[in-house]
Design a protein that fits this description.
Number of helices: 8
Helix content: over 70%
Shape: globular
Structural class: mainly alpha
Number of strands: 0
Strand content: under 5%
Radius of gyration: 20 Å
């Protein structure tokens, strides 16, 4: 195991961990987006509640939740380390600095975008996940998540917070999706274009669906 520890502590290993945890979190986003999209059936929350109940009680899903939390922590830690490493690599700014010539603003702002997403996750989990899991642990039953969503998203401040989170997620994914494949050495001239456009499509669709959830409730399209 010494070689594995040495590898993870190296610069390449940290980028590898950043990429693998990122792709794992992307797979979580797919599932989370799918379950949340069930509210668009607009059937009084029956379909959404059915899927939410499955996610909250399935043993496999509950176990994966633990891995998910660890992946979030690892991704955040590695992200901060990479940001600091890149910042320390250029302690003195050039007199004439044109960063846009070689990179996009969102690729240079991954730490900022990640921080905004982290703050959003604190709000999101405090609104739904933590109260629901706490109630399950203490009282053995789930909270009415659908009704909680209707109540939360009738407040414009909550809607704005979620829109900011989804907007930040869009830019974070736009760079992170392609970057993860590159860090894992999975980029190749034959399918780089496919990875790039898949990343763009994914970065648009997932945040858009998640953003439409609070917007639809606030505008009374749902509920």
């Amino acid at each position: 195991m010494n070689w594995f520890t040495t590898f993870l502590s190296s610069s390449i290993g940290k980028k590898f961990l950043m990429a693998t945890t990122g792709l794992f979190l992307i797979s979580f986003l797919v599932v989370h987006c799918f379950v949340n999209a069930m509210i668009f059936y607009n059937d009084g929350g029956q379909t959404f509640t059915l899927w939410a109940h499955f996610m909250a009680t399935n043993v496999v899903i509950r176990t994966i939740e633990i891995v998910l939390v660890l992946a979030f922590i690892a991704h955040i830690v590695q992200g901060l380390w990479l940001w600091k490493k890149n910042r320390d690599a250029r302690p003195v700014k050039y007199r004439v600095n044109k960063p846009g010539a070689n990179s996009t603003w969102y690729s240079r702002s991954m730490a900022l975008l990640g921080t905004v997403i982290l703050l959003f996750l604190v709000v999101h989990t405090s609104n739904f996940w933590i109260p629901n899991r706490t109630n399950q642990f203490l009282h053995g039953e789930e909270l009415p998540l659908y009704e909680m969503m209707l109540e939360k998203f009738h407040h414009p401040v909550e809607v704005v917070i979620y829109l900011i989170g989804c907007f930040s997620l869009f830019w974070h994914l736009l760079h992170g999706f392609k970057s993860a494949f590159q860090s894992l050495g999975l980029n190749h001239v034959k399918y780089n274009t496919l990875i790039r456009y898949s990343g763009i499509i994914f970065s648009i669709i997932v945040p858009f669906i998640l953003a439409m959830m609070p917007v639809s409730i606030y505008l009374h399209w749902i509920g």
